[in-house]
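Tutorial, part two.
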Amino acid sequence: MTTKFSSGLSRFDLSGKTIIVTGGGYGLGKTMAGGLAAAGANVVVAGRTQSRLIGTVEEIVENGGKSMHCVTDVTDRASCRQMVASAVREYGGIEGIVINHGVIEVGAPTETSEEEWHRVVNTNLTGCFYCAQAAGRQLIDQGNGGSVVMISSNGSLVAFEGLTAYGASKGGVDMLCKQMAMEWGRYNIRVNTVNPGYTTHPMGGKYEIRTSPELEEEILKWTPLGRRGNPEDFVGPVIFLCSDASSFVNGHMLVVDGGYCAL
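Running the prediction step on this input gives:
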């Protein structure tokens, strides 16, 4: 009997699936949203700044994709639920969410203020939980499974000087992923993280991308691929985790940092 082999490429197709992307107005979120749309998904871009969200939607539509925006405060549980409800009203349901928003504060542990700590943890960890909870409830009600992708950081796996609150928040995201993967696997809902390393795009907060020769030399030294990650480097991993190609991947931390954590 002759075995018929398949390339499996069709399993990466997101046609007809609706994916929410938080932090979709710029940077990694915008690029990932565009990539998901190019793979066929209806993309709901969410975030705080309407003008940026509209810009992402317009670019997706200009490239032949389908998209809408939803102004969302991820630190507010009701706002996150409204985000999911808006996606359902527009497209009839959802198949997944990419929780990408985040902020960073830089400072020594002894100097981190209460305000800085709560801002980072409330946005990165609590906001991630609110978004995942809202999407998970919808996916469970629909009964068809789905995918939750949390954008974490390699800062959850190794320590970086000055990133106490950020590292703690992302470590919490990784554990949240594992917990929800265990809880929701019975509903065929997969929960995974993508953990970026140094990238070319800065995050929100009291952090500006540092381009000193000393830092760049350090990045080149400790990153086997010898560069920062570009936003485009995260499109493939996110498409994989949102698609049927990762149908048996659950509770996994996919580190995308050019090999930094391998050393």
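The mean pLDDT is 94. In part three we will examine how such features are distributed along the chain.
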